[in-house]
Amino acid sequence: MGKKKLEQNKRAAPAMWERARDELYSHILSCGVLQAGSDHQREWFDDTMEYLSERYGQLRDGDLRHLREAGERFCRPVVRRDEKVAATS
């Protein structure tokens, strides 16, 4: 029985991380953090990650760190290539 429970926990962790990620992305889009300056974004992420760590208590510190990194990447502006460079490639 112990092995079966361990396998269930391994499957549950990614699903929980994905739910936390989806919730974080939803908060990013609804809170207007995309238009905020870098200092305000950092503060917002500090507060939001504290909230998410309480809401998803089963996530480990490494999971939360990766979650924050994913959220910060989501907030970065799209880097557009120069059309001349793209045309010659």
Describe this structure in words.
- The protein has helices spanning 2-31, 38-55, 61-75, 83-88.
- It is an all-alpha fold.
- The chain has a domain at 33-73.
- The longest helix is centred in the first third of the chain and has 30 residues, at 2-31.
Write a concise keyword list for the protein shown above.
single chain; about 90 residues; globular; mainly alpha; about 80% helix
Structural class: mainly alpha
State the separation between the terminal residues, measured CA to CA: 57 Å
Question: Rough shape?
Answer: globular
The SSE string, one letter per element, is HHHH
What topology emerges from the helices and strands here?
Layout: H1 2-31, H2 38-55, H3 61-75, H4 83-88
Helix pairs in contact: 1-3, 2-3
